[in-house]
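notes to self, project folder thing:

trying the whole complex as one job this time. last attempt i did each chain seperately and stitching them together was a nightmare. two parts in total, labels are on each line so i dont mix them up again. if this works i'll redo the older ones the same way
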Amino acid sequence: MKTFVAPFVALLSGLVLGIGLLLSGMANPAKVIAFLDLAGPWDPSLALVMGGAIAVAFPAFTWAKSRPVAWSGERLQLPTARQIDAPLVLGSLTFGVGWGLAGYCPGPALVSLGMASQPAIVFVVAMGVGMAAHALLTRPKA
Amino acid sequence: MNIAWDTFTPWTSLAGGALIGLAAALLILGSGRIAGISGIVGGLFRPTAGDTGWRIAFVVGLLAAPLVWGLFAALPAVQSDAGTATLVIAGLLVGVGTRFGSGCTSGHGVCGLSRLSPRSLVATLAFMGAGFVTVHVVRHLAGA
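result (full assembly):
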């Protein structure tokens, strides 16, 4: 049961998320950069994307916190890390620089890849290399 | 501050955001997982038995979104003005940064803030701040 439900829920979640990114304008790098450019003609739309997302997700997570298991019967895997450390801050700063340079964060880049957008292909390959490098650098020692 | 009223899309952005929130709600309540894209994709680079199927399914859903959208309506324009070198550097920084930082816009920005996680608040302020500064430097200081 579990093995069937989890991929189905994940597929549907990915699909809804992708459609949300397209509808919101967040899949468009030019719009993302127009949001990040406070000194230019500023497009505040993406603040509403985050607002809309949290308005729906907040009650869901509040409910989830009080539940031992998900509908699929799987354990609820809420993050347990609490410490605010250097990897968190430096990693996030690094991510922000990359986000500002091209206007892609991981979700929109994958949605644009689904549109066979040429720049997204280049970006996603490089992002994959970056993620593989992290996996290599942090691999548990045998 | 000068607002770009002509490109401001409050309703579609709010509605799209609500769908993103719905997707995150579905994944946590339905399957007990955080809808953080960098975490879901990044986990594929260190596969563990029984933990890859759902990740691949999620990515397939994301990739299929434009195809499904295209069945019903014309796809919205996506415009990128970045050159190849910029895209490569940006991709590397986003890949490495989101993995060391344990999340991206979805995992920290949407799920983390919705969980009231102080870690995610710090991460979100850091990547948004870096994004604002980077765009300012590239657009207004570097003469690009």
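what i see at first glance: The CA atoms of residues 27 and 33 of chain B lie 6 Å apart.
need to look closer tmrw
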